[in-house]
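GmrSD restriction endonucleases N-terminal domain-containing protein (Rubellimicrobium mesophilum DSM 19309), 279 aa
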Amino acid sequence: MSVQIDQIFTAKAENIWQFLHTAGQGCYIPAYQRSYAWDDENVNRLIEDAISGLNHLIERPNAISFLGTVIAIHDTNNVTVKPVFQAEVAQRVMTLIDGQQRISTSVMMNVALHHHINTLLRRFEKLEDEPFEWIREQSERALAELWTTFALDQTTGNPHVNRYYPRVIRAFDDVWSKKGSQAIYQSPIARLIWTYINHADAKKTEDFAYRVADENGVSDPKHEPLVKVFRHIRGQLRAFTSKKKAEQFDFPNVQQVILKESFMKALWSFTPPNQSSVT
């Protein structure tokens, strides 16, 4: 019997944010996929594409930027998940056939951004003026949304932190479980996510200086490519928010965007006497 490819694979336009926000969805990297191999140059291109897309959105709200394809299979029976505790698996498993480098990098960006926002918030946590209240509210909303892109909340866990699953794990290196005695996160991407989940859940105030070393304190070669890229991502984030370095990026002027939106809202909400508003 012939196989109808179009019945197996369907193309769907979806941004990475939507993909990583899918409720209960875990991303699974099969064992035959190569290890994380992106470098700083790959990350810079992804950042440049994202910044270009943001600039287009200012003038054209419906603009899109193509960041590449992701091929994933919904493993309904968890046949690709090895090893596995069937009762502990994520609600929906998407096995990544292509695009795991891009997905892993996007998750790292969100982890780094979550930590960066938290760090910046501490600078004015005691200030109570209205602008700072607005910034806090927007930041807390962003933090909550970022968290769900790399951590799946299973509502319970023993110990408590095990209620959170890394959203991306790899076959044989990692095992999802709400039980601390069963959960294993040893692949580079899962280890990074899991280490940060523990850092954030414990509400630690020190910098998240991520480094993976072997028993002798030497950097683990298996993790080094990802650790190096994560450091680079954090450096780029610091540059975005630096008065001295921000100008080197063609980043949208956020203040002008906010002022423009506020002006337009005020303009459209104003109704002159004896005239109806235009919508």
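Confidence is low (pLDDT under 50) at residues 1-5, 263-279. The chain has one domain: 5-244. ok done for today
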